[in-house]
Design brief:
The chain is α/β, with parallel strands linked by helices. The protein contains twelve helices and twelve strands. The strands form three sheets. Strands 5, 6, 7, 8, 9 and 10 form a six-stranded mixed β-sheet that branches. Strands 3-11-4-12 form a four-stranded antiparallel β-sheet, with helices on both faces. Strands 1-2 form a two-stranded parallel sheet. It comes from Devosia geojensis.
Length: 302
């Protein structure tokens, strides 16, 4: 962090009690992307509402769950959502439509200092599928068309590893309706294999240290003995915490200062808000996601 920016954030943090800085903003709207069921997302994110109100001087913090990623993408593009933490492909989708719509201000950091994760392709442990070669001709489920790990990165990386186009290698492909539903679809036989995400660190039996598998294990929805990992992607940059550029600059600075300080001020809330497995927020920037922007432009087009 530059000395100037650190000084700015420190100054903002010290003046959070001055709601006049918020200009005419009375409500902050946080979008939830539908990667897991709505009630669980609301329950683990609601802890930021009161302290964020106090930090910015707004009258209310509201949460807007969407059944899919695109609902939040459109909300950020249209100015009806102010804050969201999403995958890099979702940010790329916004950037390619309007590069000035949002700022990717922060991202999550793991205990070892890394800021990346992986697509994890899984199959049922009793399916007979043991590696990537044995997925030929099977039904492949992707999480969501706007998911980085659940769609974009597999479409870029898988053809290199299987040696041919995805549509030629697999018997059928489709979308599972978010990461949680995708894994449940693998377990119930809707999909033979499916793409979700994880840190790739820690124990497989625990669903790794972070990611969708770990979330499902922690909620009692998943026994990792029921799954086998058949492929892992190259590393993907952790998704950004984005703020809408429709907000005044002073409000954006207050929001950044609040979230940057959250791991120290209330680690339990930070852990819940980020779905667990991370130690800190660190600064982010559009440059961090340029490879994902380029990949999305190539694979999806926007």
């Amino acid at each position: 962090m530059s000395a100037i920016r650190k000084l700015l954030l420190t100054s903002v943090a010290l003046s959070l009690a001055a709601p006049a800085l918020a200009q005419d903003v009375n409500v902050l709207r946080i979008g939830l992307d539908g990667s897991e069921n709505e009630s669980d997302q609301l329950r683990r994110t609601e802890c930021v509402a009161d302290p964020l109100k106090a930090a910015t001087g707004v009258a209310e913090v509201q949460f807007f769950p969407s059944p899919d990623y695109n609902g939040i993408i459109q909300g950020l593009l249209g100015g009806t959502i102010d804050i969201a933490i999403m995958g890099a492909s979702s940010y790329a989708a916004i950037y390619l439509q309007d590069a000035e719509a949002v700022d990717p201000i922060l991202t999550t950091q793991q205990e070892d200092g890394s800021t990346g994760y992986y697509t994890i392709m899984v199959a049922r442990a009793d399916s007979g599928i043991t590696d990537l070669a044995s997925t030929r001709g099977k039904k492949l489920g992707f999480a969501d068309p706007d998911s980085t790990s659940g769609y974009l990165v597999p479409n870029v990386s898988l053809p290199n590893d299987i040696g041919e186009p995805i549509e030629a290698f697999y018997g059928e492909t489709g979308f599972g309706g978010g990461h949680e539903n995708l894994v449940l679809g693998v377990l119930d036989g809707t999909w033979d294999v499916g793409t979700t995400f994880g840190s790739g660190q820690g124990e497989w039996s625990e669903g790794y240290t972070s990611g969708n598998l770990r979330i499902m294990v922690d909620k009692g929805m998943l026994d990792m003995d029921d799954l086998v990992e058949v492929w892992q992607s190259p590393i993907i940059p952790n998704g950004p915490l984005m703020v809408s550029n429709a907000l005044p600059d002073d409000m954006k600075a207050q929001i950044e200062a609040f979230f940057l300080a959250l791991p120290e001020s209330d680690f339990e809330c930070f852990d819940a808000f980020t779905a667990g497995g991370y130690t800190n927020f660190v600064e982010s920037s559009p440059e961090m996601y340029q490879t994902i922007i380029d990949a999305r432009r190539s694979v999806i087009g926007g």
